[in-house]
Amino acid sequence: xxxxxxxxxxxxxxxxxxxxxxxxxxxxxxxxxxxxxxxxxxxxxxxxxxxxxxxxxxxxxxxxxxxxxxxxxxxxxxxxxxxxxxxxxxxxxxxxxxxxxxxxxxxxxxxxxxxxxxxxxxxxxxxxxxxxxxxxxxxxxxxxxxxxxxxxxxxxxxxxxxxxxxxxxxxxxxxxxxxxxxxxxxxxxxxxxxxxxxxxxxxxxxxxxxxxxxxxxxxxxxxxxxxxxxxxxxxxxxxxxxxxxxxxxxxxxxxxxxxxxxxxxxxxxxxxxxxxxxxxxxxxxxxxxxxxxxxxxxxxxxxxxxxxxxxxxxxxxxxxxxxxxxxx
Length: 328
What we know:
By secondary structure, this protein is mostly helical. The chain has helices at residues 6-28, 32-54, 65-80, 86-108, 114-132, 159-182, 184-201, 206-232, 242-255, 262-280, 284-298, 302-305; strands at 2-3, 143-144, 234-235, 312-313.
């Protein structure tokens, strides 16, 4: 009899617990929990998007905050002009991220290594300084939103509606990633990560595969930006800062690079650790940095990546005196 692997059991348990957070928050009278775990869900979606590049494509993007910010500003700019339709907000975010991702992708995909990292960072910083110069939209101070995105059947202007919308998006992205990485596209993308030159020799258009992954990752990150703007009811250039890109990378590494659910575990661990240390000391960043370095040194595959991925098998009983087949 096969028993599910430890990774599957942990992922399932965490999803169930995340689904029950609103009920627990209502029971305990702690509405702050919805905001905290709402951030976990939003950044979990963004980390999943980055993991498609970093974990399965071997592309270290240090500018993915660009797409998180584009998604948020799509909501902010449209709301500024009185457009409250969530579908238009979502379409604007997806369109903006697709166009910027396609244009920047054509440039960055022709590089590798440190050049790839620096060019993605440069694109993000360009848009960061552009956002700080938009005085009509708050400039460096950002701007507040007065209402959440309206999707007709529901509005993202209440913590509960936003939480379950973010949870639904997270589950949808997890299902998409699972299908994608086991599809021929995902296999080809991982082949490019292992040996791109050999993949080209076999006739695979590696540039198309890598560029498609980059644009798809940008669009998913843009959806996270839409949720983030509704979560905070605020849009700021800080969403596009390089520090946000660094946090997303830490979440992926902390949870487990190249694992399906690892980025979600990384986002959960990172944000809960940050919130807990802030309550203890004003020097929380120093302690957090040391803890993250310790985790990476002890387990290079991350918290979730260190768990066994193979199903446990229960061996049937064997007659007395017969070998059981288990190693001694």
